[in-house]
Write a structure and sequence with these properties.
Elements: E1 28-32, E2 36-41, E3 50-57, E4 60-76, E5 81-89, H1 94-110
Antiparallel strand pairs: 1-2, 2-5, 3-4, 4-5
């Protein structure tokens, strides 16, 4: 007989107890602005859902919350479906906005448009 390895008693929920889970998954950022991002994933994002998105902006990494405003199938490959979604930023902090604006300015300069 296998011994129960739990150290705390578990209580079965008879009604409904809602929760949310945050899971970081790889994605490809296709466009970025001060207001939001367009990204591609291998999983669909539901309209109006909120997601914390981690962005690596050159030497700076930021996490910003975004609300899905559109989502659709972008491409169908051999055995993978690619989804494209647009997220608008929700209540970004001033520090995150400075990082995004700095990144956008550097990209413009690198492309000769700054």
């Amino acid at each position: 007989m296998q011994q129960d390895k739990r150290h705390a008693e578990r209580v079965q929920i008879l009604g409904e107890l809602r929760g949310d889970m945050q899971v970081f998954q790889p994605m490809h950022v296709r466009e970025i602005s001060r207001q939001g991002v367009t990204l591609e994933t291998v999983f669909p994002l539901h309209l109006d859902s909120l997601h914390d998105v981690r962005l690596s902006l050159d030497d700076t990494s930021v996490v910003i919350r975004g609300r899905v405003i559109h989502s659709h199938v972008s491409d169908v490959e051999q055995d993978t479906i690619v989804y494209r979604a647009g997220l608008e930023f929700v209540d970004p902090t001033p520090a995150v906005m400075r990082a995004i604006e700095g990144f956008l300015g550097a990209v413009k300069v690198d492309r000769g448009g700054g």
